[in-house]
Structure formats: C-alpha cells, structure tokens
Design goal:
Layout: E1 7-13, E2 16-22, E3 29-34, E4 39-45, E5 53-59, E6 63-69, E7 77-78, E8 90-96, E9 99-105, E10 112-118, E11 127-132, E12 135-139, E13 147-148, H1 150-153, E14 169-177, E15 180-186, E16 189-193, E17 201-202, E18 223-228, E19 235-240, E20 243-248, E21 255-256, E22 266-270, E23 279-283, E24 299-302, E25 310-312, E26 330-331, H2 335-338, E27 348-351, E28 354-358, E29 366-371, E30 377-384, E31 397-398, E32 405-408, E33 412-416
Parallel strand pairs: 27-31, 30-32
Antiparallel strand pairs: 1-2, 1-30, 2-3, 4-5, 5-6, 6-7, 8-9, 10-11, 11-12, 12-13, 14-15, 15-16, 16-17, 18-19, 19-20, 20-21, 22-23, 23-24, 24-25, 26-31, 27-28, 28-29, 30-33, 32-33
Length: about 425
Amino acid sequence: MARTSAIRIWVGTRKGAFAFTSKDRKKWDCAGPFFNGQEVHHVTQDPRDPKRHYAAVGNAWFGPHLHASTDNGKTWQISEKGLEVKGITAKSWQVTEKGMELKDLPDATLKRIWHIAPGASDEPGAVYLGADPGVLFRSSDNGANWEMVSGLCNHPTREKWTPGAGGMIVHSIQCLGKGRLIVGISAAGAFRSNDGGKTWSPFNGNVLVNFAPEKFPEVGQCVHKLKAHPRNPEALYQQNHCGVYRAGFTTEKWTDISKGLPSRFGFGLAVPAAEKDTLFTIPIHSPEERYVPQGKLRVARSRNGGKTWKLLTKGLPQSDAYDLILREAMTPTTATQQASTSAPREVFSITRGTLAIPGTFSRHTYRRSIRLPLRCTECVELSALHDKHRHNLAAPIQMPRNLISFRECERHVHSAGR
C-alpha cells in the first residue's frame, strides 16, 4: 500500500495564522498564531522553492502588508519594497441622498492584498500579486522588490470597471508559462497576456452580465474564480457571478456550461490534475441569497468538461446547511502531487470552524473532523511537509462561509476570496 503523505494546513484567521500538521490525518499538531491579532487573507508556497512562503496580512489601523518566509514558515519578514499604488483612480459605492452611487476615488492606495501567485517554471524569481483597487504587481526577485503591471492597471477599459461586494479586486492569477498570463477581476472580467504582462486584452466573449443593461459587454463581467488545468494550461474554466464557463486560452469566446446545475451562481472552483476533463464547483442559491440551495451542501462534479453534472452529497449535510462556500474554497491535488504514487486523492472541507477530513477522492465521503481554534477563519493552505526524502504532496480543500482565500500551487494548496 502506498504511504500517505504528511501534510501541513495553514489556516488564516482574523486573529492570525495557524499551521496544522499531520502524518496520518488522524492526529494533528497546531502551531501559531503567526501574525498575532492580524487578519491573514492569503498564504501560499512557491513550488519552485518549497521552503519559500508568502502571506498577505491586513491590519485595520496599519493597512495591508506582505510577509515572506524562506524557512518553511518558521520565521517571516516584511517583503514589500515598491508595493505602492500610483496614479490609479479607484471607485467605491457610497450612500448619498440619491441612494447608492458609484464615486471616483482619486489617488487610490493599496487597500487589501487578495492573491499571491509564484510565476511559472520558466520565470525564475517571478511572483505576482493581486490587490484592491484592481491592481496587479510583479516581482522579479522573489518578492524583494515590486512594481505595478501598468499594462493591466492602466488598461484603456479601466473606466468601465466597477467594484464587487468585496471591492475591485484581482483575485485569480494563472501563470501558464511562455509569457502567457490570465487574471480574473471583480468586476471587470478576465484579461489575458501573451507577452509576460506587457500588454493585455479583455477575454469575456459570451460571458453574461445579467445585472447590467448590456448583457454581453467587452468588460464588466464579475469573475468569481478562474482556473487553468494544471496539466493543460490551454484549458480554462471560470465560476462567474452569472454562470460556469469553459474556454481555451487562444479561443475568442467562452462556452456556457451551466446547464444541469441547480444555480448559475457560486464561488468555488476546482480543476484536478489527475483527470483531463473534470471540474468541481459548489452552487450557491443566488446573489441575493448567498447560501447553498435548499440548505443542502452539494458538490457539483463534471467529468466531461461541463457537458453533464452530478451532485455529490455523501457525507455532506443535507438539511439546515445554510453555508456560503467562497472563492478558491476547493482545490485538488496537482500534477506534481499525482506524479507520486503516494499522493492522496482527497477533498478536505472547512465548515463553521471545523475541518472535515474526507475519505478517498473517488468516494467523496467525509469521515472525521478536527476543531479549529477560531471561527473567524480568513484563509487556508493545505500542503505536504517539506521532506528531502519524498515529494511534497498536498490534497484538495473546500471551504465555506467566512473563509476568504484558498489557492493551490504545484505542490501546495491554499485558500482566498470573499
């Protein structure tokens, strides 16, 4: 029997970050809190250098900060030189005598760091960072120095971008290699680049905007999560405010694959490396009623690229489960993990402050749980322990409610999104 890999789960909360480790998924050790008393929105690991981690930390008084670790999360240092918003006009919904109005905010500043993405394997040292107010940063030296990606931040269509419920945020960054990048922005849509981020083109053909007068505009779509297939980066999927879609990186339009789902609305999205045409999402009732339909927590799975869907329920609560699963709240094992025979095929979940430990990936059965130290959870990262005698392995996670970030890298998984 293949040996089960050891894992570490990073849990970001509004009181700091905690690290859970286990060798058998039965007994868990907890370390932390790290960044005591601060909100931890996102933690991620660089698959090119497994001991290198990044954390997006927020403070109500002192603002957002980026921390980096080169010793597997034992110690952290501020790593944000050049991480400044310059020449950007943001927008904000404000209450006026006329009701809710969208107001311009000149000379915007960095409000919150949402997402950190190490570059592709052919970009040594490159790291990307998405933030509010709709800005993308790039570092070429592992986060020591940063600069705005002006081609996107100052895009000619920016005047048409509007903030979503969580602000105007760059929350999905996919580094596909060979100069190919694609990002998802709420609420501006998807943008792609073929030249390493120098120039960008809107990529929103056939994506619905049912909350706007123009239903299929060039920009203004509210992407909730966008993912590329780990083994085939040309294959793209997105869970949108208005449906689930599939596309190729070089195609002109997206294909609507929402038929068969109980709702078009949702946040979570997972695209496993082990299966060519499989994807997962968790339908949410509606933008106005943000909980799972009928109080039943169901995972929707398609194994043919969205042509048909099956709702998975075994081990999940099917009554009074009014949960909200947020963006990047589902993440499968990656290509590197599946290359090892000991890589587990599992789906973890966090609900109401409880981490549910599942059965096998194919059975989709939850069988035991551990209690988290705090209910006010912000983000989660699931990763294998760094061990020179074996591959770093990870398993997928799905998370709901007040979790706001969740992301996977080549060997590790983490969470984000609101």
